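ugh finaly. both done.
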Amino acid sequence: MSSVQKITELVATLNSFIVSISSSDSILNPDSCSAAILNCTSILGLLLDSTDHADSDTDDKLDELGVSLWNNSLNIRKPQVLRNSSTDHDNKLKNSNIESNVLLGNVRFTSFSILKRACQSISTSSVRLKMFQLALKAAKSLIDAKMFDKAEILLASANDYSQALSSDFDVDKLQVQKLNAFLSAYRAQTLWLNNNNSSVSFAMINGTLSSQVTQNLSFKEVEEIMDIFIVCAKGSRIAGDGIKWFQNALTLSRLNQVQSDQFFIDAQSSILALISTLYMTAKNFEKAFQAAERSILV
């Protein structure tokens, strides 16, 4: 049996387990399904490493498998997946949600790896752009699951696609700029939460906060990047670092296109209150009072 045939069978098995764990009617134990999904993704990774590039038919088959697995990964986020059979009631949802993050991260990492192998001989702008987008989405899933080493692998791939697109005249430069903003934010978040490397992390987000990029971000995109900064702020061990992350979030909330929206006005007030608390922790009472006062006057 060829490597591609083995991959085909494993993807079919993996998809069936994903369907089972997302179905309320499944008779299979969710813990067993979770373990089977993780085992399948591990084996698929090994098979991909040992699969040589063959021909266009092989690429087409791998592309089909990668797309089917990616689309099926959406089922992991369904409410039924949040059930759990082995934990006590108080911790049920929390533990199950962590488990679903891990499953989603591994499945998307595997799906992206299959698609990357399928597209390795294709260098069109549209394919590069699509793979850039998928790399960022998969990396986000891995960051949510606190699987930072795998996230860094995908962010490195995303950076490669970004570099290739930078000299491509047939691509939407505005879209690439937006993707680069998220690439910078995710790389900063990964470095920060994994290593607490403040100097490199803060350098990374300069690209995200440049006016050339921020003026073209949508409400939803601004909110998503703000959330990244807030997560990093709350994960800071030193008050001063937390304040810097909150201040970056505050900068985003004051962009021209969002500053009059009530959601972002409320966000500014909340962020200033959190900054005030951190200044209190650092015993800088004057700045704590100023931030508290500004949070009321927003």
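ok and the 2nd:
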Amino acid sequence: MRGAKAAAAAKRQTARQKSKPPGFTESLYTRRSFQAEFESVALKGAALLQLDVDVVLKYLERDARVVIVQKNVCVCLELSLAYLSLRFSVTHAVKFVEPEDAEAIAEGITEVDFGVLEMKTTLQKLVDQISEIEHWGASAARTQEHCAYVPSVEEQLEELLAKRLNTQETLQTVLYKIESAATEVEIMKGYDTSARTLRAVLPNPLLQKESIDATMERMADVLGDHKEIEDAISLGNDLAASSAGVPDVDDDELKDELGMLIEEQKKKEEEEKERLRLEEKHKAEEKERARVEAEKKRKARRTRRR
């Protein structure tokens, strides 16, 4: 996969990730789950080779800076149809991050992230095994009439299926609780940041009680001075108008005059409506008279022809 194709594939993968519901667990993938999740969008239906996955991950990590890739050797649960065992494995963890989230980038992939990945991997294995057990159960039911041992096998499969479903439900519940706890951690971080910021602002001398009282007192004085200035200007305007012979205008007189103007405008509008109504009525009457006259003339012509 060349650079242009890698960039296009990475862009589609990033868009696919952003379209998913936000959540701590939704941002984590193993190498295999990453390939399975994004194979359908990376090359528009073409299969991703291991080398293609390496190229796309490198582009996302180095150029786009939206993922962190880390290798970890750990002890994992090996789940079979009948038992659980331990094995060592190498896990390639992929974590989507925001490019501007410096804290998450510096933190990298934590032990908690690897633990969540192991749980998600185990859950996927459970889903696959449940489908396999259900398939075997259906096959056993179809051949029950032909083999005497089938009922016993079917009962064992049903018992095993119930255990696996119970395990799946338990792991899924734990995963939800981890997601909820991670969200609560982010909330508490926000609270902590807010508290520290507020604590840093409160010691400001301007927010001390003595300073606040003095500031509000000065504000009251300034507003009082401003009110006196406004009153003086208003009085000066009145005196100037009186000296120039401009009559005083009473507010009540202005209101009355405004009311008269409004009433006069309403009266004009009513008169105009009445005039238009009478014109329409007159036109209708004229039209009716013309129709009656025309009808009389037609009747007279018919009478003369007879």
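summary for the 2nd one i guess: The chain has a mean pLDDT of 80.
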